[in-house]
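Morning F.,

Quick status update on the modeling queue. The single chain you submitted on Monday has been processed. Sequence for confirmation:
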Amino acid sequence: MPHLIECVPNFSEGRNPAVIQALLAAVTSVPRVWLLHHTADIDHHRSVLTFAGPPDAVGEAAFHAITTATELIDLRRHEGVHPRIGATDVVPFVPIHDDGMDECIRVARWVGQEVGTRLGIPVFLYEHAASNPARRHLESVRVGGPKGLASRMDSDPAWLPDFGPPHLHPSAGALIVGARRPLIAFNANLKTNDPSIAKAIAKSIRQSNGGLPSLKAIGVEVASRGMVQVAMNLTDYRVTPMHRAFQAVKAEAAKWGVEVAGSELIGLVPQAALDQAAVAALQLERFDPSQVLETRLTEAAANTETACPTISDFLDAVAATEPTPAGGSVGALAGALAASLGIMGARLGHDIESEHRLTQMQHRLRELIQDDADAYNQLMRAYRSPKQEPHRPQSIATALNRATDIPMEIAELACEVGRLIHACIPSVKQAVRSDMTVGMIMAIAAAESGLHTASVNIQLNQELSESKSATIARAIRNLEELKRLCYTPPPFESGH
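Structure tokens below.
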């Protein structure tokens, strides 16, 4: 199945429950997206949502929420202590797995393009998705607020947005979207109402002023609670953990004769960060994260849930009357099964390189089972959009392109799987060669199905047909070669 990613959008609304509820509804309206957490603050006048799911579904949910914010939030009437440049201020996509950053970058750019084209909002890409190094850091885009950004857009060609018009949206401002590693939003509240103290502490501890590495901090007033706050972002908790940042605030506050009232988290935090803080506070020796009861229970439950019933569920889903999963997903499954047979043969033949390559392809084909269903659903949503929608043709073209690329990738991977299986056959025992041949036959079936689906799709768009013709021709040649390898009997060898 595809990697899961997380999205943590920040909206410039923390006081109106109806607007906040509408943002939540926009996210939960998208299937297979899980709303994990949300928080709203009346002083910051800001809401932070956290949701996760497959990449394309998360991207769609983010776009729905941005659209809702554009309709309901007017930045011209906004007052809050937190820096911002838009009704939807920042939309980061975060990989849950170590190798998911490329997917986050892809989704961030897709969302940025959709927002710029369909909503008319200037979009700036940041962090790993940034196209301009000067705009990589969030604070660089936010400096001066909406007016400062508008001035730079007017006077400096380097500050033209990545997507959308070269001017602020009248009510929604601008949007910052990107891909980043997990970040911890962590605030320390001070027993004083003097904002200058919080600002001085923030300045002394943040990285940009020579303080703690991977720490951003600002000082703000929390009027509703009669205190001030050092609001921090830990961009890498492995470099500067929460307890170290908190102790730095306490040490600086003591210099001002001020006590720390407490701390708070905004959004979610990795379990590893809490383990890290607990180990430091308790001075635990030889701590192992597997000693956490809930961690072991989660692992045990996951091992139980990944047993054979998953195959039954997939077969039932294919047999159902829903449009997905269907042919494309079945083709990807056939390719993954072929790769599994190839892995078996490579292991028996002690071919480590082929085993590694086949394992990589098997993982990707497993992801494509769901990716194909997602692409079909995206295409159907584009077709169902109002015909008077000016960007409907472009949305259909984009979705159709993706719905063609995925079966083409299935076909190309399946051919490569088949060739690797054929190369492994001489190194395995005679009893296993029949299984390896079945693997090649499954690879051929997967490639045939992928090519069929792609060929049907390109007939719907002449421009797409022209752009994909060379790729399809190459895939056809690879498939014919694979068939020759599979079905041509070996030459007869006479005995002596």
